[in-house]
Amino acid sequence: MRQNLEGHVRRCPLLKQVQSLTLQPFYQKGINAGKEEDQEELETFRPKGADDLESSNDPASGSLDNILSEMKRNAVYSMTKIEHVHESICKDIQDSYQVPEACGIWIKREVDRKLPFQEKHVMQQVSILGNLEGLGVLKSSLGKERADYDDGTGIPAVVEFGAGRGYLTQMLADCYGIKRCFWLKENRTIEDLNLNAVGSLREDPYLAIGKHLCGPATDLTLRCCLGEHSNQSNAELNSVNPNLRGLAIATCCHHLCQWKHYINADHGADLPDVTDCKLHLESIEKKQCGEDYGVEEIVRNMKAVERAVLGFMCKKIIDMGRLMWMKEHGLDAQFVKYVPSSVSPENHLLIGRCPNHL
C-alpha cells in the first residue's frame, strides 16, 4: 500500500498543481485567513456551566437542572441581544435596484447567443454594476463614448472573486469595455493570495468584484483587497491599498461564516451597549423558560417566520459589521439591498469607492 501511495503521489496531477501554486510569488499561505480564536474568546461564547454539563454524571445532585436552566437563559438572552443590536445598528438599509443604460446590450440579449441567459442572474449582475456606476466607480461608456482605459480615467483591470464561470466580469467587459480581467474561484485561492505580489496588477488600479461570495469568502476578499495583514503597522492597517479603485461584493451563505475569518471580530467595543437587554429578560423567561423546555425545544417552539426573522437579523448584523470595517479602512462605503427579495433572498451588496481615486 505504501509503495502504491508513493507511486500515486509521484504521478498525481493535483499535487503538481498545488506545488506549482505554492512556488508562485503571490502565494502566501493563510495571509488573508485572519486569526485563530484565543481560548479566552472561545470561553466567552460558551454557555456558562457547559464544562460542568460535560463532566457531570450525577443528575441527582441537582446541578444538571441548574446548568440546563442557565443554558436556557443564555439562549433567550442571545435572541434578545440579536434583536437589540439589529435595532441599534441596522438602520436605513436602502433598496437600490439599479439598471444602468450601459448594460442594455445584455438586457436586450444583444450579446453572444452562446452565453446562458437567466433573467434573475442578469438582473443581479446589472444592479451590481449599476450601483458601482452610481457610486462613481464605473463610468458609462456607450457607443463612441466608450472610455479609453489607457488614459488614466477608467479602470484598467478587474479582479473577480468567487468567479464561477465569470459571467459578472463578462458583462463588465461587454458593457464597459474593460479588457484586463482576473478570475479567482476558490476560498483557498483567496485565503493564500497576496494581491500586491501579482505582477500584472502592480502600479495599476483595479476594481474588485464578487457575486455571492459564500460565508467567509467575503471576509477573505476584503482582507485581500484592503491588505490588513499581521505584519503591518497600525498606520498601514487603516489605509486603503493605493491600487484599489473600488469594490462590490454580494454576500451570501452567512451560516458558513467563521469567527476566525470574520473581518470585524474586534468591533465589539463600537457596538451599542446591550446590557440593557437584561431588563427585558424576566418577562421573556417567564414566557419561554417557565416550562420544562430545553434549549432545542425553545427554538423548535418558535414559529418558522420568527426563526426566519431572527436569521435575517443576524445576516444584516454580520454585513453591517463588514461595512463598519470598510469605512474604518478609508472606503466611502454603502450597504444596500441590490435586488428585490423575490429575485434573490441573498440580496445584500457591499460597495465601496476609494477616495484617492475620485
TrEMBL record:
<comment type="similarity">
    <text>Belongs to the methyltransferase TRM13 family.</text>
</comment>
<dbReference type="InterPro" id="IPR007871">
    <property type="entry name" value="Methyltransferase_TRM13"/>
</dbReference>
<keyword id="KW-0489">Methyltransferase</keyword>
<dbReference type="GO" id="GO:0030488">
    <property type="term" value="P:tRNA methylation"/>
</dbReference>
<dbReference type="InterPro" id="IPR039044">
    <property type="entry name" value="Trm13"/>
</dbReference>
<dbReference type="GO" id="GO:0106050">
    <property type="term" value="F:tRNA 2'-O-methyltransferase activity"/>
</dbReference>
<dbReference type="Pfam" id="PF05206">
    <property type="entry name" value="TRM13"/>
</dbReference>
<protein>
    <recommendedName>
        <fullName>tRNA:m(4)X modification enzyme TRM13</fullName>
        <ecNumber>2.1.1.225</ecNumber>
    </recommendedName>
</protein>
<keyword id="KW-0949">S-adenosyl-L-methionine</keyword>
<feature type="domain" description="Methyltransferase TRM13">
    <location>
        <begin position="190"/>
        <end position="351"/>
    </location>
</feature>
<comment type="function">
    <text>tRNA methylase which 2'-O-methylates cytidine(4) in tRNA(Pro) and tRNA(Gly)(GCC), and adenosine(4) in tRNA(His).</text>
</comment>
<keyword id="KW-0479">Metal-binding</keyword>
<dbReference type="GO" id="GO:0008270">
    <property type="term" value="F:zinc ion binding"/>
</dbReference>
<keyword id="KW-0863">Zinc-finger</keyword>
<keyword id="KW-0819">tRNA processing</keyword>
<keyword id="KW-0862">Zinc</keyword>
<keyword id="KW-0808">Transferase</keyword>
